[in-house]
Give the backbone structure.
Amino acid sequence: MSFDEIVCREFAELATDYLDGALPDATLELVEEHLAMCDWCRDYLGQIEATSAAVAHTPAAAPAPDTLQALVAAFRDRPKEDRP
Amino acid sequence: MIAYKFLAAGGVGPFSRYPWPLPRPGAPGAWVAGAGGATVCHDAVHACRATDLPWWLQDELWEAELGGAVTPGRHKVMAPRARLLRRVDGWEAACAQRFADACAGRARDHAVTALDRAGASEPARALAACATPREIRAAVRTGHPPEAARIAYTMAGDAAIRALGGAAVVAAYIAAHAAARVDGDGAMAAERAWQSDWLRTELRLDA
């Protein structure tokens, strides 16, 4: 049997693109069909949304001065062939 | 074009979470445009034909007018704009439960067919005698189907469990897959057609 539909594992791979509005129409229909009947995936999507929202409001922490200096030194000291 | 739209309670889009403008007495709801309105969809408003209904069951069913060029999808239609005309009052919790129970009964029938074909006539008779999802669930829990019918038998139990939980859209999905399990892909389409006919008849919808 072969059906045009997705399963939960496939939804999990598409969830971020779905939230970003980045899915093509055909895939979007499959995703929303799945969401219409899968409460587990709706919960999963809600968890991703909540996590994204929480992270979005978290200020980015600057590295400690020692760490920053070590990173800068490492960049300066890297071999020429590794530089862009 | 007149189509249908399932919404979450309160007239909210189940995916977009967009609060649809509801009709007022004697007047349809305001037009909602999809283009550029990311809160509604990427570039269109989505709705159902009567044949699409079993895929999208939600709390509320509304009749909607679609404006502009309508593009058909697999199980939906898309249009640049739409407005709600009236709520289909027949679609409420009791109706959804009747539909779920009917789908559980269909899944039971497919399992009975599988049992008969596997030569298990006595389990087939016992399962066929189950009139309610509760009876189907009890029978499946204690039954011992032959291997050839085991999956269809289990699906009947799953459909009954989901019907008992009020998950009509899942019971319908399982019934469609049970049909395909027993009689192939064409049977799935036939099962979905049976489901949409049930809804259309029960809710007195136009085709």
The interface with chain A takes residues 14-15, 38, 42, 46, 55-58, 73-76, 78, 167, 169-170, 173, 177, 180-181, 184-185, 188 of chain B (CB under 8 Å). Residues 180 and 186 of chain B are 7 Å apart (CA to CA). Residues 36-40 of chain B have pLDDT under 50 and may be disordered. Residues 2-89 of chain B form one domain.
